[in-house]
Fold this sequence. Notes:
The chain is an alpha+beta fold. The protein has a single domain, classed as Roll (2,3-Dihydroxybiphenyl 1,2-Dioxygenase, domain 1). It is 16% helix and 34% strand. The protein has 5 helices and 16 strands. The strands form 2 sheets. An 8-stranded mixed beta sheet has the order 2-3-4-1-13-16-15-14. The longest helix has 11 residues, at 16-26. The protein is globular, with a radius of gyration of 18 Å. The protein starts with 5 loop residues before the first strand and ends in a 14-residue tail after the last helix. Bound molecules: zinc ion. Zinc ion is lined by residues 8, 10, 210, 212, 257.
Amino acid sequence: MRFEGIHHITLITGDAPRNVDFYTRVLGLRLVKKTVNQDDPTVYHLFYADERGSAGSDITFFEYPGARRGRPGAGMVHTIVWRVASEEALDFWEQRLEGEASVIERSAERLRFEDPEGIGLELAVVATDDEPLVAEHPEIPRKHALQGFDAVRAYAADPERSRRLFEESLGFEPDGEGRWEVRGERRGGWFAFEPAPAERGVGGAGTVHHVAFSSTLEDHNAWQQRVAEAGMQPTPVIDRFYFRSVYFREPNGVLFELATLGPGFATDEDPAHLGERLSLPPAFEHLREQIEPALTKLPDPRGAWKVS
Ligand code: ZN
């Protein structure tokens, strides 16, 4: 039983319109689902991914309108890493991000920058046989596009506290340098711990809420059981409609989710029109007339290129 890499990463935004603009117009991802937070249907849950809404490429945001910026500390993810194909792609992105994001560091293999709310983002040139998970965008050549996640990097007070769970229960493979590979039959990624800053972390806009790893539908219950047997306190399996979820906090405090590969985002929408209208899970559909007019107005991410 192995996880098929990272499933999705969920963050908090205080500014949903700007968030849509940055992740779709600038980074070129596709808004594949526009729905509400199932724990608070008055605010959005936005999902950006490749063209098909694949697990492994899916960055999602809970909207907390006007939320203050947070700051990552121990037990929080501070950087999200996507794969790109080549150093040329890094050149392309370094130019494209000018005036859109603050670039922090550029090397032959990496480009580090921050999104408008301060979360650490990184593009890395990675040689892999994993399928590139790419979205279409008129200004971004396919060969330069983001190809899905490579890694998340988190702060830990004491990485050793998590080792047993990671290696004996979750099947993470250590590389001896504070990183673990999370690889299944088709796809893999990395989870890394780095020493935490002295200051405590503060949740808020521009911070990561949780990271989810991919489970097959068949293995999902067994994973939940295995996490419980390891002494964690996993939630029961929760039906999130687009996938099923189990949540628990690993020993350093990072909130993990185990999410199923499927049913997926095309379960309630035509794959050609993902994310164009507000999707409500069946349990919320009867509230549409109250929910929809009260939500923040968002730009239409592909409105400008419908002419083609
Ligand atoms: Zn999640």
